[in-house]
């Protein structure tokens, strides 16, 4: 019989969040955000197909401060998920698994997704 008082399985109180685990969770979360955000795209396209009044209302909703904030977040989620997906393709080649490279590419994903989001919004606005 074990007299050890340690937990039987790992749990969140044991581990400190690391860049790799946070990026993994963010990749999954941005996938969900992109799925839900695609409904906004469908709403916008359907409103355009219905007629000018519906389209004007959709433009008003999406052009509001909250709408722009949601679109900005959706844009960042798109670029983050894209960049991290490319990182996963790099891993699929069997490279980049060592800790220094994983951290370096993770930081590159964060920087690149932020830069692409910024560039996209500068061009769009």
TrEMBL record:
Entry keywords, A to Z: Heme, Iron, Membrane, Metal-binding, Transmembrane, Transmembrane helix
Principal location listed in the UniProt entry: membrane
Cofactor binding note: The heme is bound between the two transmembrane subunits.
GO biological process: tricarboxylic acid cycle
GO terms of molecular function: electron transfer activity; metal ion binding
Top-level lineage group: Bacteria
Any one annotated GO CC term: membrane
Localization in the cell: Membrane
TM ranges: 29-50, 62-82, 102-124
Pfam families reported in the protein's UniProt record: Sdh_cyt (PF01127)
Binding site for heme: 81
Topology of this chain in the membrane: Multi-pass membrane protein
Keyword Lipid biosynthesis: no
Cofactor(s) the protein requires to work: heme
PROSITE patterns: SDH_CYT_1 (PS01000), SDH_CYT_2 (PS01001)
Subunit structure: Part of an enzyme complex containing four subunits: a flavoprotein, an iron-sulfur protein, plus two membrane-anchoring proteins, SdhC and SdhD. The complex can form homotrimers.
Function in brief: Membrane-anchoring subunit of succinate dehydrogenase (SDH).
Recorded family membership: Belongs to the cytochrome b560 family.
Protein name per the record: Succinate dehydrogenase cytochrome b556 subunit
Taxonomic placement: Bacteria, Pseudomonadati, Pseudomonadota, Gammaproteobacteria, Candidatus Competibacteraceae
């Amino acid at each position: 019989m074990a007299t050890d008082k340690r937990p039987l399985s790992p749990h969140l109180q044991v581990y400190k969040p690391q860049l790799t685990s946070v990026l993994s969770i963010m990749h999954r979360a941005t996938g969900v955000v992109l799925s839900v955000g695609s409904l906004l795209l469908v709403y916008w396209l359907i409103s355009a197909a219905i007629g000018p009044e519906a389209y004007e209302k959709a433009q008003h909703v999406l052009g509001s401060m909250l709408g722009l904030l949601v679109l900005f977040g959706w844009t960042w989620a798109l670029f983050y998920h894209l960049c991290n997906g490319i990182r996963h393709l790099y891993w699929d080649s069997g490279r980049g698994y060592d800790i220094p490279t994983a951290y370096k590419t993770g930081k590159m994903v964060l920087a690149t997704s932020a830069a692409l989001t910024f560039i996209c919004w500068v061009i769009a606005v």
